[in-house]
């Protein structure tokens, strides 16, 4: 990859985030008077190699116009789908893979990703000419549960944590390979939970690039305060 290579980042933002128990999709909740989506997209565009962000929005999105991003010329909006993978594919179809042979995909609800980690991901993938993801090693003892009901599970067994990783984003892959893997996966009914899972199922290599544990995904109400703490900490540097 050329040292001057620039990148487009896709941000799937068509989800509703039911676990947040909020009256709007979680990406539109606010931290420090700005939407989570604003923080996330602004962080991506502040990276010197990222020139455009494609945001995949829900077909009936009523909130984006008040997100603080509507007039940003470096943002392209596309219509997302029912599942995350559908939104990512919609974004991929808006990219010219000749001009942009690599693409980043980043969760809308991960505003605390660091520019240093994005650098590391890009540099590692360049060095090995292979796609990869930011990830953190599992530190805690892992238990596989058996669901008793909606509220409680019992322990089934202990899972060996060595070489277990938490998958984060961004995830960086060759545009054509990711597009083909997702299209094949959807056609064959694969369970595609992130870009890496599509690449895995297509039997293509994928690197694990260690990233910061501060790169949390805002999922539950308690995560808002933690994300605010990390964002304020990063802004103070």
Brief write-up:
This protein is 29% helix and 26% strand.
Number of helices: 6
**CATH secondary-structure class:** Alpha Beta
Superfamily at the CATH H level?
A: Spore Coat Polysaccharide Biosynthesis Protein SpsA, Chain A
Described by strand count, sense and barrel closure, the largest sheet is: 7 strands, mixed
**Structural class computed from helices and strand pairing:** alpha/beta
Report the average pLDDT across residues.
Answer: 93
Rg calculated over all Cα atoms: 18 Å
Structural shape: globular
Q: How many domains?
A: 1
Written overview of the protein:
The chain is of the alpha/beta class and 237 residues long. The chain has one domain (7-235): Spore Coat Polysaccharide Biosynthesis Protein SpsA, Chain A, CATH 3.90.550.10. Helix content is 29%, strand content 26%. It has 6 helices and 11 strands. The strands form 3 sheets. It has a 7-stranded mixed sheet with strand order 5-4-1-6-10-7-11, with helices on both faces. It has a two-stranded antiparallel sheet with strand order 2-3. Helix 4 packs across helix 5 (195-201). The longest helix has 14 residues, at 115-128. The mean pLDDT is 93.
Helix and strand arrangement:
Elements (H helix, E strand, L loop, with lengths): L6 E7 L16 E2 L2 E2 H10 L4 E8 L17 E5 L4 H9 L9 E4 L9 H14 L3 E6 L4 E6 L5 E7 L5 E10 H14 L6 H7 L5 E4 L11 H14 L2
Parallel strand pairs: 1-4, 1-6, 4-5, 7-11
Antiparallel strand pairs: 2-3, 6-10, 7-10, 8-9
Helix pairs in contact: 4-5
């Amino acid at each position: 990859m050329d040292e001057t290579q620039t990148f487009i980042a896709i941000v799937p933002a068509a989800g509703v985030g039911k676990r947040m128990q909020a009256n709007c999709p979680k990406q539109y909740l606010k931290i420090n008077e700005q939407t989570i989506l604003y923080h996330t997209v602004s962080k991506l565009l502040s990276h010197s190699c990222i020139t455009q962000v494609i945001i995949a929005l829900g077909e009936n999105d009523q909130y984006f116009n008040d997100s603080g991003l509507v007039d940003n010329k470096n943002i392209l909006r596309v219509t997302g789908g029912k599942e995350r993978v559908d939104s990512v594919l919609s974004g991929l179809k808006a990219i010219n893979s000749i001009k942009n042979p690599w693409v980043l995909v980043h969760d809308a609800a991960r505003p605390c990703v660091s520019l240093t980690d994005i650098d590391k991901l890009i540099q590692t993938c360049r060095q090995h000419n292979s796609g990869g993801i930011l990830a953190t090693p599992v530190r805690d003892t892992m238990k596989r549960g058996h669901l008793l009901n909606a509220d409680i599970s019992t322990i089934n067994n202990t899972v060996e944590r060595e070489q277990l990783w938490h998958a984060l984003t961004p995830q960086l892959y060759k545009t054509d390979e990711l597009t083909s893997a997702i299209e094949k996966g959807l056609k064959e009914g694969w369970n595609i939970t992130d870009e890496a899972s599509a690449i895995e199922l297509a039997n293509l290599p994928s690197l694990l690039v260690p990233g910061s544990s501060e790169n949390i995904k805002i999922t539950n109400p308690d995560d808002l305060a933690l994300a605010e703490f990390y964002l304020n900490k990063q802004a103070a540097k």
